[in-house]
Amino acid sequence: MKYYDIGSISEFLSKIKGSNPDNNNVKLVLRGNIETVDIRNSLIKYMVGYLIDEVDKILDIIKVYELDLLAKFLDNYLLKLEIEEFQDEILNYIYLTYDTPLNNSHKYLWDKVSEDAKDRYNIWYANKKLIEFFQGDERYEFWFRYIKDLDAKLLGVNDRQLFLDFDKFVVIEFRYIGNAAYIYSKPYYLINYDGKVSNNRMEDDGYYKNQGSALSRIIHRENWQYRTTKLIWELKNHAL
To answer: Of the candidates 80, 56, 78, 72, which has an alpha carbon nearest to the alpha carbon of residue 122?
Structure first.
């Protein structure tokens, strides 16, 4: 059994580099506390618990992880930190490499990640996209609270439109404030719009404005948040 007195993961890596322990277990003296650690999983545990500032080191490690260990890291990272503590550098790497859980071409990773962790990753991703889309507009705060509370999910976004899934219905917001948002039943959305959105095909705003088929529109005038909160509650709690 080997003992290492360390203060950070970078020290841990440098101390065990080149060593060949007889087994996976080592003793770590970390900030005065002795911990028995399986070195296969230690980086997952201690990166999340102690080293939130060592982004570059974490990236160097997870880039060479096997999928099983990467999935364990994501479970720990996404569930133990507050969403506000997530580091964009780390999750941007995950996004650019493995996209989101909705992308079936990367199921080999996301199927190994817990549902709760995936929910929190999706919240991070949606927050990133809503900030980019609304660019400081008050609509960002209004819609993000539904996503953070898991009442809605981001279906898609492009340079002109943003699509929010409330399970029974879908809200389509438009980038420019002069446009009312449109609400459609989920079946209507799936038949008429899902193919375009799923394939990232952008259309003019008018393509998504069918007032005769919409459940309702959201006009962003004074007190629109109050009216829309009431409308969303009614749509969620009544048969469509």
So the answer is: 78
Give the gyration radius of the chain's Cα atoms.
23
Which stretches of the chain score pLDDT less than 70?
1-53
In this predicted structure, what is the pLDDT of residue 70?
A: 94
Domain count, the chain: 3
b/e 118-145 (16+ beta carbons within 10 angstroms → b): bebbbbbbbbbebeebbeebebbebbbe
Question: Which structural domain, as residue segments, surrounds residue 2?
Answer: 1-52
| Pairing mode of beta strands 153-157, 169-174 | unpaired
pLDDT score of 31: 40
Structural domain contains residue 57 = no
- Closest Cα to residue 77, out of 30, 120, 125? 120
Is residue 40 in some structural domain? Answer: yes
| Domain end marker among 12, 28, 52 | 52
Q: 128-144: per-residue pLDDT in tens?
A: 999 999 998 999 999 99
Q: Are residues 76 and 91 in the same domain?
A: yes
* Structural domain includes residue 59: no
CB 122 within 8 A of CB 101: yes
Rounded to two decimals, what is the model's pTM? 0.76
